[in-house]
Amino acid sequence: MSAELWNSAASVLETNWSGDHMVPSRRLYPHQWSWDTAFIAVGLAYVNPGRAWRDLRSLFEAQWPDGRVPHIVFDPALAEADYFPGPAFWGVPAYGVRPAHGSTGIVQPPLHAVAAWKVYRRAAAHGAACVQEARAELEWLYPRLVAQQNYLTTRRDLGGAGLAAIVHPWESGLDNSPAWDAALANVPADLELLTTYRRRDLDVADAAHRPTDRDYARYVGLVLSYRAESYSDTDLLSRHDFAVECPSFNAILGAAELALAQIAGVIGRTAEAAVHRERGRRISDAIVARLWNPRTRTFHARDVRTGTLSPAHCVSGLMPLLLPDLPAEQVEGVVAEAKSPRFGFPAPSYDRTAGDFDTLRYWRGPTWINVNWLLRRGLLVHGRRDEAEELRAAMVRLVHQHGHFEYFHPRTGEGLGAPTFSWTAALALDLLADRSVPAYARAA
C-alpha cells in the first residue's frame, strides 16, 4: 500500500506543478492558494525540495507592503473567465513587483512558518549541503513570515484581546462552515449580485457539494464591502458586516510563532526566538479566554461584533490542540470532543450528530485531510501518540482506498470535490514518511 500511495501522490504533485508554483487542482482552482501552499510544501519536500521552497517564495513574492499574504495569487497567463472571483473582480492595485490585479485582498491561515520549518527539517536529514541551502531559504522567508504575523496580530486584532479576526469566511479556509452561520446572518444575501457576478464553480463541480447561492451572495457582498475601502483595516469593525475570531485560524497563528522561534534559532536570532515563544503563549492564553466554552468543553468561533460564541461544534474547535501551552482542562475537553460521536477519526468538518449535518456540502460535514493532519499534529504536541497513530492510519487508509480527492464523504469515504488534489497528495506523503513529534511538543 505504501509504495502505491507514495507513487500516486508524487504523480499528483507533478501534474499540478505550474512552473513556479503549485495549483490545488487544474480545473477548479487554477491559481495559487495561500494555505494550500503551506500544506503542499510539507509533502513536496519529500519528492522535490527545490519546488517546495520555490512554491513558498512564489507566494511571499506577492506579499503586500502591510504584511498581509493574499489568499490567492493569480496566474497572469490565465483569463479572467477561467476563475471567479478573478483578478479584475478583486481590483487590487499594483504594489511592489506585483502588477495590478495580481492577487486578492484577503488572507488565509498563516501556516507557512510551520511548513517552512518542516521543509527545513526534511533538508537537515540530507547532509550539510542541503542544510546550507535550506538555511538560506529560511533567512529569506523569516522577515516576511514575521511581517505576516505582525499584520495579523495588530491590524486584525479587531476585538482588542490579542486574537486575529477574519473578515470573510474564505479567510478561515473553512469557507461555508456552520461556525460562521450566526455571524453571516447579519450579512445581506443579495441574490441579484449573482446575476452581475456569475459564480463559475458550478460549471465544474456538483452544486450539492458547494456553498449555496445565499452564502455565495454574502461572500461576494463582503468582498465588495472590503474592496470599496481599498482593503483598509482602519475602523473595519464599524463599517464591515463580518468579523469573527476563529479558533482554528488563531491556533495556527500561535503555532506559527512557535515555528518562528525554531527558525530564529537556526538563523542565529536567539533574542527573537524568545519573543516568538512569548507571543505564542499569549495567543494560546487569549484563545482560552475568548473562545473556550466551559459548558460544551470545546472551542467555538466568536462574533466580534456581538461578542457571542457560535453554538456550532465544528472541526475548527479542535485545532487549539496545536498549542503546547493549552491547559490540561482544555486539552482533555478537546480530545474528548474529537473522540466523541460528534467527530471520531478521521474527523468530519462538522458535528455528525447535528440535525443539519450534510455529508456532501463542503465544510458542513465532509472529511478533509488537511484539518485532520493538523489534528494529528495537535495530538502529538500533547503526547497523545496512540490517538495520533489511530488518526494517521485512518487518513492513510482513506486516501489509499478512495484517491487524492479534495474531501471525502464522512460515512462512506467516497471522494468528493476536485480529484488529483494537491494538499491531499502532499499530506499523504508526510503521513507515510514522518512519525516525528513537533519540536515544541509538551514533554510527556
Describe the model.
With about 450 residues, this protein is mostly helical. The chain has a single domain, classed as Glycosyltransferase. It has 17 helices and 8 strands. The strands form 4 sheets. Strands 1-2 form a two-stranded antiparallel ribbon. Strands 3-6 form a two-stranded antiparallel ribbon. A two-stranded antiparallel ribbon has the order 4-5. Helix 2 packs across helix 17 (about 420-435), helix 3 runs antiparallel to helix 5 (about 110-125) and helix 16 (about 385-400) crosses helix 17 (about 420-435). The mean pLDDT is about 95.
Question: What attributes does this structure have?
Answer:
17 helices, two-stranded antiparallel ribbon, two-stranded antiparallel sheet, 48% helix
In helices, the fraction of residues equals 40-55%
The percentage of residues in β strands lies in under 5%
How are helices and strands ordered from N to C? HEHHEHHHHHHHHEHHEEEHHHEEH
What is the name of the CATH class? Mainly Alpha
Strand order of the largest sheet: 1-2
Alpha-carbon distance between the two ends: 32 Å
Largest sheet: 2 strands, antiparallel
Shape: globular
Number of DSSP-assigned strands: 8
**Structure class:** mainly alpha
Count the helices. How many?
17
**Radius of gyration, rounded?**
20 Å
CATH topology: Glycosyltransferase
CATH architecture classification: Alpha/alpha barrel
Average pLDDT, rounded to a whole number, is: 96
- Count up the domains: 1
